[in-house]
Amino acid sequence: xxxxxxxxxxxxxxxxxxxxxxxxxxxxxxxxxxxxxxxxxxxxxxxxxxxxxxxxxxxxxxxxxxxxxxxxxxxxxxxxxxxxxxxxxxxxxxxxxxxxxxxxxxxxxxxxxxxxxxxxxxxxxxxxxxxxxxxxxxxxxxxxxxxxxxxxxxxxxxxxxxxxxxxxxxxxxxxxxxxxxxxxxxxxxxxxxxxxxxxxxxxxxxxxxxxxxxxxxxxxxxxxxxxxxxxxxxxxxxxxxxxxxxxxxxxxxxxxxxxxxxxxxxxxxxxxxxxxxxxxxxxxxxxxxxxxxxxxxxxxxxxxxxxxxxxxxxxxxxxxxxxxxxxxxxxxxxxxxxx
Length: 339
Hints:
Elements: E1 6-10, H1 16-27, H2 34-54, E2 58-66, E3 71-79, H3 87-90, H4 105-112, E4 115-121, E5 125-133, E6 146-153, E7 163-170, E8 173-181, H5 186-200, H6 207-216, H7 218-221, E9 226-234, E10 239-245, E11 249-254, E12 257-261, E13 279-282, E14 288-292, H8 313-324, E15 331-338
Helix pairs in contact: 1-2, 2-4
């Protein structure tokens, strides 16, 4: 199960010491060496400094990335500031628009991290994505024919998230399940966790059968219920299957054409339709698949952000979250790119 991001609001300099301490504690879960922890502290300090100097409504999304193959820390800096007119120039040491800055920020962040990407639009704001891996671990070496990213954030004020995501990728394809427990808080999180646990043990290649199995699982039926969507990508057969129950929105973008997938009404664990048909389509290089829980408004449009589709999926997910999060519920955005 993918863990959720921790949201830090960076709008007041008096809270920066607390933010740095909490992110340092998160990084401590990843078995970084002392010098790597020191580098993370520098990156966090530079990101916070940039948000306070230049940004409006700055925030950081932070999570650990730990699995059997690698461990690391991911940080996404988001703001509604003026944007960066020339990204290449902004990454050159000594270049700054602030009188009290040495202009070393973005360049230093890039040097000290394993993954560094920036998307910015004048008048819209900026998103900076960084990942720091333990030792020489690096996800780029996997060379898969697809990549995915997700932003999962609890409702403001909640410590646990009622949204959940399970992803398993390999050279043959991917098995993905997005879950949204009814409501929010611990009981919603329990519903999502139980369904995700059942999905992880399931090997069926029929999305409808999987949904029915989840619905009938006793541990799921003991919860308040959830909505969820199954996404199965088979690179060998060249087929993608997708089906959902409830109000998780799913969208395919390919060659400028948008296709929305309708979910069935119902609640997994309580009541689902007796008749459902599986939706499938061919795998095509360049496809972009995006799924959002109902904590995200549905009127987002990536065409208003030219060039963003070329970026890391987490940049895309963060952009949708930035502008369309309702802030009244848990919020999730999943982005899958077929390469």
